[in-house]
Automatic annotation (TrEMBL):
<dbReference type="InterPro" id="IPR032341">
    <property type="entry name" value="MITD1_C"/>
</dbReference>
<feature type="domain" description="MIT">
    <location>
        <begin position="6"/>
        <end position="84"/>
    </location>
</feature>
<dbReference type="InterPro" id="IPR045331">
    <property type="entry name" value="MITD1_N"/>
</dbReference>
<dbReference type="InterPro" id="IPR038113">
    <property type="entry name" value="MITD1_C_sf"/>
</dbReference>
<dbReference type="Pfam" id="PF04212">
    <property type="entry name" value="MIT"/>
</dbReference>
<protein>
    <submittedName>
        <fullName>MIT, microtubule interacting and transport, domain containing 1</fullName>
    </submittedName>
</protein>
<dbReference type="InterPro" id="IPR007330">
    <property type="entry name" value="MIT_dom"/>
</dbReference>
<dbReference type="InterPro" id="IPR052817">
    <property type="entry name" value="MIT_domain_contain_protein1"/>
</dbReference>
<dbReference type="Pfam" id="PF16565">
    <property type="entry name" value="MIT_C"/>
</dbReference>
<dbReference type="InterPro" id="IPR036181">
    <property type="entry name" value="MIT_dom_sf"/>
</dbReference>
Length: 246
């Protein structure tokens, strides 16, 4: 394997693991665990490609250290979940980037996830409806087998026809993917939260609508939400063993 390719993998591993340590120190344990796992895999790929014994020993030592920390985090998170005390908070600052739905929700999606509840009063306007579509696409691409998505929102009294037709189209499209979309409307809904049947609850101050409008249709961030600027908001993450009864 070419030396520059190995060097590139090592650089990627260092970057991911540096992020893991930063998240770890910020007590964002579930996110840090994902980064530790990705970084460890990258270092293992480097180890396979390196022939020098001294370097191999160095990488083995590093991998062991990160694996030990990842196991400690797993145990810590499992205990907090068992005690019903798990809570993380993420503060998304004004104009921040790197907070696509994939980035935000990935740490909490597992192969056990089959059912999702979305409660958001503002799935009305065109950009909000597109946000819901992107959220559903994220779930379909993730390492889970979602079979049912429940949406509780409010009706758009000004233009209910657009909202109704858009949600009906999404319902049919999801059905073609083997996913059922259950729709319910409430005139009193205010709080915003997303619940997964693997126990995770994510409360976003602005719901799914925390992205700023792009400067134009051909501006960076128009398609890739990791490059889209955000509005300031707070994300609270909890875990419960009784999500379906909430």
């Amino acid at each position: 394997m070419a030396q520059n390719h190995v060097s590139g993998m090592e650089t990627s591993a260092i970057s991911v693991l540096k992020r893991a340590v930063e998240l770890d120190h910020s007590s964002r344990f579930q996110e840090s665990l994902v980064c530790y796992q990705e970084g460890i895999q990258l270092l293992m790929d480097v180890l396979k490609a390196v022939k020098d014994d001294s370097k191999r020993g160095h990488y083995r030592e590093k991998i062991k250290g990160y694996m030990d920390r990842a196991e400690q985090i797993k145990a810590h998170v499992s205990q907090m979940k068992e005690d019903g005390k798990y809570h993380e908070q993420i503060r998304i600052s004004e104009d921040a980037t790197g907070h696509s739905y994939e980035s935000l929700f990935k740490p909490y999606i597992s192969s056990a996830l089959t059912e999702v509840w979305v409660e958001d009063p503002y799935i009305r306007h065109t950009h909000q409806l597109y946000n819901l579509v992107r959220f559903c696409e994220m779930l379909l691409k993730a390492s889970c087998k979602v079979k049912r998505i429940h949406l509780l929102t409010s009706q758009d009294e000004a233009d209910s026809s657009q909202q109704s037709s858009a949600l009906a189209e999404l319902k049919e499209s999801l059905s073609n993917q083997g996913v059922t979309l259950d729709l319910q409307f409430s005139s009193t809904i205010h709080d915003r939260e997303i619940r997964f049947d693997n126990g995770w609850i994510i409360k976003i101050g602005r719901g799914l609508d925390y992205f700023k409008r792009p400067k134009g249709r051909f501006s960076i961030g128009y398609c890739d939400y990791d490059l889209r600027q955000c509005q300031e908001t707070t994300v609270d993450i909890f875990h419960t063993k009784h999500t379906k009864t909430l």
